[in-house]
Amino acid sequence: MPNVVKAWNIESSAEFSLDGPVGEVYSMVVANEMLFAGAQDGNILVWKGIPNTQNPFLTGYTLERPHSSCDMLSFCFVIAFTPFIFKFYSCKWLVWELDTLEPVMTLNDHTDAPMSLLCWDQFLLSCSLDHTIKVWFATGGGNLEAAYTHKEDNGVLALGGLNDPDGKPVLICACNDNTVHLYELPSFMERGRIFSKHEVRVIEIGPDKLFFTGDGAGMLGVWKLLAKPS
């Protein structure tokens, strides 16, 4: 549905049309009582929630794309490392401060398009078509620096993470050779590999050590992470 975001009140069934996006809307995130929507023209639209009013959505701000990146779409942005908003253009992650919606930094260590971000504990992990996974950490001055780079043989499309039954963190990453790799952190020791007929584009974490994968053919995979064999 181009050029609009639709919202419904689940108690009253009232419908609201939020104008402002140009083209299709590819991603939406809710944080700090605000709705963020990434649109086809590369901008992020922001609406602030106003309770107990006839229209509870107040158009507040637009996080505009850089003029040099007019061909990039807003299909990947996240609210992570509160209070930051991350969004990629070309080979860069642009970062806004969540409370002020002001740009604060640019992360440009990747050499090809970044594809996914994962905020986990005190670290931020990013992946890219440049065949790398980067681990970022916050410095004392409030900036972010790449602390470690893990290299893959293929481009990396999506990231997910959960703890195994022994409490050990396991990173799940989908590559564009139709495989999904599982790595134990922080060593990046491989714990397993999933083979798919199509590229896995989405990884979601569920309850009870379950995780879900969605591929380019529309297939949904349901997997359970087991303890490491003794």
TrEMBL record:
Domain of life: Eukaryota
Name of this chain's protein: Anaphase-promoting complex subunit 4 WD40 domain-containing protein
InterPro entries linked: WD40/YVTN_repeat-like_dom_sf, WD40_repeat_dom_sf, WD40_rpt, WDR86-like
Pfam families in the cross-refs: WD40
